[in-house]
Write a structure and sequence with these properties.
The complex is a heterotrimer of chains A (about 350), B (about 260) and C (about 270). Chain A is α+β, with helices and mostly antiparallel strands and about 350 residues long. In chain A, about 25% of the residues lie in helices and about 35% in strands. Chain A starts with a strand and ends with a helix. The chains are: A alpha+beta (about 350), B mainly alpha (about 260), C mainly alpha (about 270).
């Protein structure tokens, strides 16, 4: 494991009496691609702006590479930001935009020209030096914004929803570009997005946030497969989230039917949330299932069918490659490994879940 | 903190520079003494004199008529023109807007003289010529206010209305007009302000015996200053203040901001 | 073809343009290039080379430049302070600094005439403190002072608008790339507000160059600007051809200076560094 590069300690921030972040603790390792993921207003952009130095926290400390940078101005921090709407300087050419930071550092002309060439090559826009900003498409402007940031050789690159303004195809292409860039540069990326697919594709670590609280920190696989609460489960992909009662270890009662599972340690007769991913629901013959019901809707999604089954009074969302016509009777089975058991929210952190839901 | 107070001081100084002269005029308008320096007690007699002065009242009436009429006609012509220009090809638009810029860029004195030269050749100077001159320099302000609104207005909403069965006229008044209205209104107000404030162009295009407030004050001031003028200033300043306050912070302004 | 029909809305205005915008310009040209008997001449226009007229033109130019410069120096910091105010009262404060613009032009001159006159308020206050009198009425200084007062809001407003249009992101990006406040001001804020400065300069310079009322009323006949000369040609000497000739020169002069200012703008935009 590489060392901690940035450490946010007990960060609190509020605007006009409205608390945005409440006692946030988070560290970012060297060379990590860390994504802050959450709905708008969850505090992810504020967190990024605190790291960038555009805001200062009401309470708490920001440690960068062992030094306290909490009160350092943005221009004195060894990190650079790629802004949501690019924030290119409209009165300068592309080369001038990229050279901006280097000229402030009084680098030599040759050095600057080399850097511009290198950066433009890196973002696949060789030869664009003399072009004006207006002549670029959104995707090209975004690449220039990235080039402008990385020529300064920051230890950390902060990206604030950089792909938000691009169309779907371009966004997907840029995701791969960003991963490639990160690997070539070997620096830390802190990425803010509300798009769970972006987060899952690119990140080493995902931090799911809601209402100013961190909900879960983990690898994309962890977050997807083992969501720690209903908010995370619901935010990351589609889920069936059902009220259940943990009868004892490895046995949960859902919709009055007892399902075997693998979770332990919830005590006996404890109310819990049960999360089952739509692709983990198996449709079988009615008599073979733990529950039986009727198909009420069927939509072809290309790779799979999206089916809604009314069973036990709950509308189960199911993804399957097998077609089941509307009206047909089916049984429902779930592999014990695919049943996620989560505590009902009770602490203040988790209340946020309910507020949002 | 030092910067903050420096800013405050600067704002205050500029504020004093802008308002002290006006404040002095207002104070003197209530001064019983004719002196510009000594306070002779409170009086409203200058206001009374102002109201009973036929010169001032006639100029006041002329100013109101000219500015209202010219702003109205300019708004009508300008809005129609903007609609037409918006439908034109790029090249023709450039030509039209170029011509529109002439009275805006030309010095007032040159515009005034050029119109006078035209008028004296074909007609006599009088109310009519002043009106035409005011309309001419007002139209550009209307066009410049309406055209951007027109360009913002998606033509698809108009087409959608037609698609839903509206006649072109109905679609225009129900769909396009509400979106244009703020631009037309600000064009009208701007035209009226320009007209109220104009001196040079009126000066050259008015005939003998016709005066707007501007030209009347000018003639008056060349002879010396009457305290009635202070009273007039006070009233005009208050009128501008109230009108602007209503426009900027009145209920309709709020609604407009909210609807954005 | 409905499009063509819609273009016809501009018809009345086109007639208006021909009748009341283009034709008057033709009239100026006609008078400028003919003698009083109607034969062609260039002498009216060339009169500008006559020392008296030429000096008046140069003097007007100097006065207008000084006035524009003072307005710019006063207005830029003011616009910046106004733009940086983030509280809810910003709209109202901006309003206060624009309001004097809406008071009749003549009344603003009247106010200064009264303040500055030899036995006016300013001198009375100076006298009260035992300070020497200020004799600037009937001098170019009074004319410049009053012009600055008259035209200052015309400089503040466009600069303020241009500053308000600058995206906060751009400022933050510059900070992020290591720029301090001074660098941000000169490399980002100034170039990006240049369009406002340019329109402010035009809105102040042209009326300052061509006005005749201020110099007439506060100059006491001693400050002779090109505007006064043209006005007198029409109202006192009844030499319309001469007046038109000088008007033509003034028109060209304004046109050329505006082109110069505008071209400076586009060049400046490209070579910031």
């Amino acid at each position: 494991m590489s060392k901690k590069l940035i450490d946010l300690q007990h960060i609190t921030k509020s605007y006009d009496g409205h608390t945005i972040l409440d006692d946030l603790n988070l560290y970012i390792r060297e060379n990590e691609f860390l994504t802050l993921l959450g709905p708008s207003g969850c505090g992810k952009t504020t967190t990024l702006r605190l790291i960038g130095g555009f805001e200062s926290p009401d309470n708490g400390k920001i440690i960068f590479d062992g030094k306290n940078i909490t009160n350092l101005a943005p221009n004195e921090r060894q990190l650079n930001t790629v802004f949501q709407r690019y924030a290119l300087f409209p009165h300068m050419t592309i080369a001038e935009n990229i050279a901006f930071g280097l000229k402030i550092k009084k680098k030599s002309k040759d050095y600057i020209n080399d850097k511009i060439k290198y950066a433009l090559k890196l973002v696949n826009l060789d030869g664009f030096e003399k072009r004006s900003i207006d002549s670029l498409s959104g995707g090209q402007q975004q690449r220039i914004a990235i080039a402008r940031a990385i020529v300064n050789e920051p230890k950390v690159l902060l990206l604030d929803e950089p792909l938000g303004a691009l169309d779907l195809k371009l966004r997907q292409d840029m995701q791969y570009e960003l991963i490639r860039l990160k690997n070539e540069l070997g620096i830390t990326f802190i990425y803010v997005t509300h798009d769970q697919e972006e987060a899952l594709t690119m990140s080493d670590t995902i931090v799911v946030m809601n209402q100013g609280y961190i909900q879960q920190i983990g690898t994309p696989e962890d977050i997807y497969n083992e969501p720690c609460n209903a908010f995370v489960a619901d935010f990351i992909g589609e889920s069936n989230i059902i009220d259940g009662i943990m009868l004892e270890d490895k046995l949960v009662k859902i919709l009055n039917v007892t399902f075997p599972c693998v979770d332990e340690g919830f005590g006996t007769n404890t109310p819990v949330d049960v999360v089952i991913r739509p692709e983990d629901v198996e449709l079988v013959a009615p008599e073979q299932g733990l529950l039986s019901g009727e198909v009420t809707s069927l939509i072809f999604k290309g790779v799979h069918w999206e089916i809604v089954v009314l069973a036990g009074g709950y509308e189960w969302l199911v993804h399957t490659t097998q077609m089941h016509p509307v009206g047909s009777k089916v049984g429902i089975r779930v592999d014990p490994f695919n049943i996620q058991i989560m505590n009902k929210p009770e602490s203040s952190d988790e209340k946020a879940v309910e507020l949002d839901a | 903190m030092v910067k903050k107070s420096a800013e405050r001081i600067y704002l205050t100084l500029i504020f004093l520079f802008l308002y002290l002269p006006i404040a002095v005029l207002i104070v003197l308008s209530f001064n019983n003494s004719k002196s510009r320096v000594y306070w002779g007690g409170f009086t409203l007699k200058w206001y009374q004199k102002m109201i009973t002065s036929p010169t001032i009242m006639k100029a006041f009436g002329t100013t109101i008529i000219i500015s209202l009429a010219s702003a109205l006609i300019a708004t009508l012509l300008g809005t129609l023109a903007a609609l037409g220009i918006n439908a034109m090809k790029k090249r023709n638009q450039t030509i039209m807007l170029g011509a529109t810029n002439i009275p805006m860029l030309n010095a007032d004195i040159v515009t005034g003289i050029s119109m006078m030269l035209l008028f004296v050749r074909f007609t006599r100077l009088g109310m009519g010529t002043v009106l035409i001159a005011h309309i001419t320099f007002n139209i550009p302000y209307v066009i410049l206010n309406v055209l951007p609104k027109l360009r913002q207005t998606s033509k698809y909403t108009y087409e959608a209305a037609l698609d839903l069965g509206a006649t072109p006229l109905y679609a225009f008044f129900k769909i396009t007009w509400p979106q244009l209205r703020p631009g037309v209104l600000s064009g009208f107000l701007m035209a009226m302000t320009m007209s109220l404030d104009d001196f040079s162009i009126t000066y050259f295009t008015k005939g003998a015996g016709i005066n707007t407030l501007s030209t009347m004050i000018y003639t008056n001031m060349r002879k010396g200053i009457n305290p009635e003028m202070y009273a007039l200033s006070t009233i005009l300043f208050m009128a501008a203040l109230i009108l602007l306050l209503l426009m900027n912070f009145g209920p309709s302004a709020k609604r407009e901001k909210a609807s954005k | 073809m409905r499009n063509l029909k819609r273009q016809l809305f501009a018809g009345p205005y086109m007639i208006w343009i021909v009748g009341f915008i283009l034709l008057p310009v033709v009239m100026i040209l006609y008078y400028a290039f003919t003698t009083s008997s109607g034969s062609f001449t260039v002498s009216n226009v060339l009169t500008i080379t006559h020392p008296i007229f030429f000096r008046a033109l140069l003097f007007s130019l100097k006065l207008a430049l000084v006035c524009t410069l003072i307005c710019l120096v006063l207005a830029y910091p003011l616009a910046m302070i106004l733009n940086n105010m983030k509280n809810g009262s910003q709209g109202f404060i901006v309003f206060i600094f624009i309001l004097p613009m809406w008071m009749n032009f003549m009344l603003r001159i009247l106010a200064w005439k009264m303040l500055l006159s030899n036995n006016g308020i300013i001198n009375t206050i100076l006298g009260f403190f035992g300070l020497p009198d200020l004799h600037i009425i009937n001098t170019p200084a009074a004319v410049v002072l009053c012009m600055v007062y008259d035209f200052l809001p015309f400089m503040v407003l466009p600069i303020y608008n241009a500053l308000a249009r600058i995206n906060r992101d751009v400022i933050e990006a510059a900070k992020d790339l290591g720029a301090g406040n001074i660098t941000i001001f000169f490399k980002i804020i100034v170039p990006l507000s240049m369009s406002g400065v340019i329109s402010g300069i035009i809105m102040v310079f042209v009326p300052a160059l061509t006005s005749f009322a201020v110099s007439d009323l506060l100059g006491g006949g001693k400050v002779l600007l090109i505007g006064n000369i043209i006005e007198q040609a029409f109202t006192q000497d009844y030499n319309w051809n001469l007046g038109a000739g000088l008007s033509f020169v003034l028109m060209i002069f304004v046109l050329v200076s505006m082109t110069l200012v505008n071209s400076r703008d586009t060049e400046g935009g490209a070579n910031v560094w």
